[in-house]
Specification:
By secondary structure, this protein is α/β, with parallel strands linked by helices. It has 14 helices and six strands. The strands form two sheets. Strands 1-4-6-5 form a four-stranded mixed β-sheet. A two-stranded antiparallel sheet has the order 2-3.
Length: 318
């Protein structure tokens, strides 16, 4: 395996990541303990200018998919006000994890990441996501989702923030966003980019066994069911939509488990790192990713792919 180099060199003095904690302004969003959307709009314009429409549009996409404001949104948003212990723990963990984080990244990759990192109150858009705000690569960390998922401790926050920085790193030094012509291409690319971000996490943490999703036996289950995950993903690729996919997100269910696509993507990227470097892999284009995914299946990564047709199906779905 060609691991990422670890160098003890001084980081050059240049503009790197900017860390912004906006949680001092979230109390004003609530009226009598309940979330108020108009107050939130004032808050987001003040503390994260340029992000309001991004959050609103994402929320509307989810509501169009069947999620409701009263059932799926308000309870999560109101918990930011009521769950003081988790809120304070998340804020403390954010401060601890982001301290000297740019130096830690430079020690591993010998590169910096030019990005703004916000801890903010979103509209259940995600615990963490990378987007462009006013033309600047931005990581938005939604404290409402962090509290809901109970990712408030340092270890969980480590994984969450560094995962999103992995996306930002690929965006800056490789190819993150592409135009695709089919659903299967879109979901294969998502599998690839999530695997890149997960591997980035592992390199910064210093363990290829690290998965921030590993709770209640999640990693052990994925390890023993990798063949099932791979076969199912391949079979579903051409018919998956945002509404029916079961591989990415804390709201989905794959045989009783969430986020199994992240595990599969990590194994795929680690497989490619046996023959190429991380920094080369993040520059792969879609056709190269397709080729590597075929090779991943044909080799039978750690004997996961049986002789009962899994490799054949992988070739068919690509």
């Amino acid at each position: 395996m060609q691991n990422c180099p670890r160098r003890n060199q001084r980081k050059p003095k240049e503009a790197d990541m900017t860390i912004i904690d906006t949680t001092s302004g979230i109390q004003d969003i609530f009226i009598d303990g309940h979330f108020d959307l108009s107050k939130w709009e004032e808050y987001i314009e003040k503390f994260v200018p340029g992000a309001k429409d991004i959050c609103l549009n994402d929320m509307m996409d989810c509501r169009n998919a069947g999620y409701t404001w009263e059932k799926d949104y308000l309870p999560i948003l109101d918990s930011v006000y009521s769950d003081i212990n988790r809120r304070d723990k998340a804020i403390e963990s954010f401060a601890q994890v982001t301290s000297n984080l740019d130096d830690r990244i430079y020690e591993v990759f010998h590169r910096t990441v030019d990005v703004d990192v916000y801890l903010y109150l979103g509209l259940c858009n995600g615990a963490g996501w990378v987007t462009s705000v006013l033309g600047k690569t931005t990581i938005l960390l939604g404290i409402e989702k962090i509290i809901e998922l109970d990712w408030c401790d340092v270890d969980s926050m480590n994984g969450l923030i560094i995962h999103e920085l992995g996306h930002a790193y690929q965006n800056q030094y490789g190819i993150l966003k592409i135009a695709t012509e089919s659903l299967s291409d879109s979901f294969l690319w998502q599998l690839f980019t999530e695997g890149v971000a997960m591997t980035f996490e592992q390199e910064i943490i210093g363990s290829s066994d690290y998965f921030h999703q590993d709770r209640n036996g999640w990693k052990a289950w994925c390890e023993t069911h990798l063949e099932l995950i791979t076969k199912s993903f391949c079979d579903d690729m051409k018919t998956m939509t945002r509404e029916n996919q079961t591989y990415f997100g804390d709201w989905v269910d794959f045989h009783g488990h969430i986020d199994v696509g992240y595990y599969l993507g990590t194994r795929f990227v680690r497989f490619m790192m046996e023959t190429d470097s991380f920094d080369n892999i993040i520059n792969y284009r879609l056709n190269k990713v397709k080729e590597e995914f075929k090779r991943f299946g044909a080799k039978g990564e750690k004997n996961v792919f049986s002789e009962r047709g899994v490799t054949k199906k992988i070739h068919k779905c690509l």
